[in-house]
Design a protein that fits this description.
The protein is mostly helical. Among the domains are: 234 residues, Serine Threonine Protein Phosphatase 5, Tetratricopeptide repeat (Alpha Horseshoe), CATH 1.25.40; 71 residues, SusD-like, tetratrico peptide repeats domain (Four Helix Bundle (Hemerythrin (Met), subunit A)). The protein is built from 18 helices and 4 strands. The radius of gyration is 25 Å and the shape is globular.
Length: 498
């Protein structure tokens, strides 16, 4: 009997060998081919993650701009950028994250999207997202790999291109993308987590982002700035006209596709950041209660401390007890617990809070600045008031209180005074938008931020290149450093001429 069983088992093995065992090499959880729309969705998610992250390893711009300060570990608030390899994080997260994946999606579209109109729209939308991502890299570092950025198969050590040249090409690409978008054609649909694949919405986004790119050049190249801004406003499809146009990435309420602010402020279980007294004072809410706050956005930005007041801490002055100060909204502890941290009514740190990538409020501030500089007709005061009001509506759901801020902070007369007023109010409206607050601050040099105690450098107007670029891509790093005037955080970039 035993012999018959062994013979049967052997026969079974022989039968199994006649099957295609190469299928065992296929990992069902990691497919060899992925649809282009899935790669695009992943790229969008990575792009939004980069912009909403609160990680001390990369997105430290809220700390640089003194919206927040740290309660214990102070090195990021003290501008320790090279020593913490923060530049490496930003560099990798853009190049190997959204940019690489958007580029992969483009390649896949050419084979798996068979409708010509849909392909044209999807390529244009994807390229707009690449332009958006490159904008943040070039305005953070200056000269960067661009023409050889995706040549990893042929170029192990990409050269760095001139920042102004890159910027001009990004504008050229953006123009082509806007022209290629056709509202009558198909697109990504629900795979697009920002606009649901709407070509019309992306056309409006493209024009608005072009306006933003134009205003960046206001001091360094006013002729190009004016031409870019006027072209954007007159462009087919128009620019943002209300908060309903805002580019909001739709995060999920459950991991892993949650808002990165929630990841860093809530899921982590850590309480590393509180408001600064600088920011709270500019809101007119330092030591205020709900009844005495100066700016009605305050409870949406921050929580009360353990005794029911809005209090910002001195910037980077040493280890402090977080419950004495105001945490970012949504990250506060439950009222009545051991630390007594009071609640806020804001939702900055909800898991599914949308990521704000471009909005109507900043659009109106750009128009106010363009009018103040004489680039466009129209009332600087009206655009300025619209920017403040739009921010209130976005954060609080109402324009209540906006008129009080406009009255207390008049636009004034004369270009210098007007630009300073715009800078201050845009700085306050760009709460939780550290990258953009930093760029406005660099361009307009206002508000003036007092350096933190024991600062490792002067105020950083750019980030130094990644440490690994110095070690691995040395010759191209050396050339780029020399071309921009030195790889220092104090080296002003091409647009920063004021």
């Amino acid at each position: 009997m035993k012999k018959r069983i062994l013979i049967f088992a052997a026969a079974s093995l022989l039968t199994a060998c006649t099957k295609d065992i190469t299928k065992l090499n296929i990992d069902p959880k990691h497919p060899v081919t992925v649809p282009s729309y899935a790669v695009f969705t992943q790229a969008e998610n990575l792009m939004a993650n980069n912009m909403t992250s609160v990680s001390e390893n990369d997105n430290i711009f809220r700390l640089i701009e003194q919206q927040w300060t740290e309660v214990q570990y102070l090195t990021e608030s003290q501008y320790n950028i090279p020593g913490r390899s923060i530049a490496d994080g930003i560099w990798d997260e853009f190049y190997t994250g959204p940019l690489t994946n958007f580029e992969k999606a483009k390649g896949l579209m050419k084979t798996d999207v068979t409708d010509a109109a849909t392909l044209k729209n999807e390529l244009a939308i994807t390229d707009i997202c690449e332009v958006y991502s490159f904008y943040y890299l070039v305005t953070t570092f200056g000269n960067i790999p661009y023409s050889q950025a995706f040549s990893v198969n042929t170029t192990l050590f990409p050269k760095y291109d001139d920042a102004a040249t890159i910027y001009a090409d990004l504008l050229k690409r953006l123009d082509a993308d806007i022209a290629n978008l056709d509202a009558s054609g198909g697109s990504f649909g629900t795979a697009d987590m920002i606009y649901g694949g709407s070509p019309a919405a992306w056309k409006k986004f493209g024009n608005t982002f072009k306006l933003k790119m134009g205003i960046l050049l206001a001091d360094s190249d006013p002729v190009t700035a004016k031409a870019t801004i006027t072209s954007a406003i007159a462009g087919s499809g128009g620019i943002f006209t209300s908060n309903s146009d805002n580019a909001l990435y739709q995060f999920s309420s459950s991991p892993p596709y949650t808002n990165q602010a929630w990841v860093g402020l809530v899921q982590s279980g850590r309480y590393d950041y509180v408001a600064t007294d600088t920011y709270m004072a500019l809101l007119g809410s330092q030591n205020a209660t709900d009844a005495t706050i100066g700016d009605k956005r305050t409870p949406y930005y921050f929580a009360q401390n353990k005794v029911g007041k809005y209090v910002g801490a001195p910037n980077a002055e040493g280890t402090i007890l977080f419950s004495n100060y105001s945490l970012p909204s949504g990250s506060e502890l439950t009222k009545g617990n051991a630390n007594g941290q009071a609640a806020s009514i804001g939702n900055l740190a909800n898991a599914d809070t949308p990521g704000d990538l471009l909005d109507y409020s900043e659009t109106q501030f750009y128009l106010a600045e363009a009018a103040a500089r004489g680039f466009i007709p129209g009332s600087t005061a009206t655009y300025y008031a619209n920017g403040i009001t739009a921010s209130f509506v976005y954060w609080t759901g109402s324009d209540a209180g906006a008129a009080d801020i406009i009255t207390a902070n008049p636009i004034g007369s004369g270009q210098a005074a007007q630009l300073q007023a715009i800078a201050k109010q845009q700085y306050l409206a760009l709460y939780n938008r550290g990258y953009d607050a930093w760029t406005v601050n660099r361009r307009l040099d206002y508000p003036v931020l007092i350096p933190p105690p024991d600062a490792i450098s002067a105020f950083p107007v750019r980030f130094t290149y990644p440490n690994k670029e110095q070690q691995i891509n040395t010759s191209n790093y050396d050339a780029a450093s020399s071309a921009i005037g030195g790889d220092l955080v104090t080296t002003k970039l091409w647009f920063d001429k004021k």
